[in-house]
Design goal:
Elements (H helix, E strand, L loop, with lengths): L1 H9 L5 H24 L2 H19 L6 H18 L21 H16 L3 H30 L1 H9 L20 H6 L2 H24 L1
Helix pairs in contact: 2-6, 3-9, 4-5, 4-9, 5-6
Length: about 220
């Protein structure tokens, strides 16, 4: 790319690491712009759930529920709870304990499992396909932006982490160099995941109630 080549020419006297970090800053600015267009921040993701929830409740009154979908959604929420008890946003070191020893973005992976599971609950495969497409649109660009920003902030340790721990597909075993921090209830409360878990439980109960009410009529 021309602007990258220009940086290389201007930075002949600098180290390869400095040149690389300069390029990452440019990539981060571009990804931030794209992420802003695609997601408009967490508020849009929250608002997008409202019509999704209404549609699920409507479909629940018209088809027997697939409870395996609820199991998958619950696993997704449990993964989010586990991750929220480990991640310390803004910390001096990257979080590599707990689920972060298996994949770099367990919160997003949990969100994906939760959303796909809820779509499968109402046996709607076209809705499941839409959820997967929206997950890619909402999250993958955001993940790329966040990882570019983390690379600039943490440098070599984060690059080493990325080399050994996949972005979303979990490793079969934990990364051996992961830190050994314990699950923290304080972090769980700080990250407000308990409230999200409560919201999921209430919504799952509403789906079951809607289905049972429809079958008894």
């Amino acid at each position: 790319m021309p602007f990258v080549n220009a940086i290389r020419k201007d930075c002949k006297g600098r180290s390869k690491k400095e040149i690389y970090m300069e390029e990452r800053e440019i990539d981060t600015r571009r990804l931030r712009f794209l992420a802003g267009i695609v997601t408009k921040g967490p508020r849009l993701r929250t608002r997008a759930f409202i019509p999704f929830a209404i549609l699920l409740l409507w479909l629940a009154t018209r088809t027997p529920l697939n409870y395996w979908g609820l199991v998958l959604a619950a696993l997704g929420e449990l993964l989010r709870l586990w991750a929220a008890g480990h991640i310390h946003k803004g910390a001096a070191e990257i979080t590599t304990s707990g689920p972060y020893a298996f994949c770099r973005n367990p919160l997003y992976l949990g969100s994906g499992l939760l959303a796909v599971g809820l779509a499968l609950v109402v046996r709607s495969y076209w809705l499941t396909a839409i959820v997967i497409v929206l997950f890619i649109a909402f999250h993958l660009v955001t993940i790329a932006y966040e990882e570019s920003r983390l690379t600039i902030r943490y440098g070599t340790p984060y690059l080493e982490y990325c080399r050994h721990v996949p972005r979303l597909r979990p490793r079969l075993g934990p990364w051996r160099n992961a830190n050994q921090s314990k699950f923290s209830l304080e972090l769980l409360k700080l990250n407000k995941e308990l409230w999200r878990a409560l919201g999921f439980a209430l919504f799952a109960a509403a789906l079951v109630a809607a289905s049972l009410t429809a079958t008894t009529q």
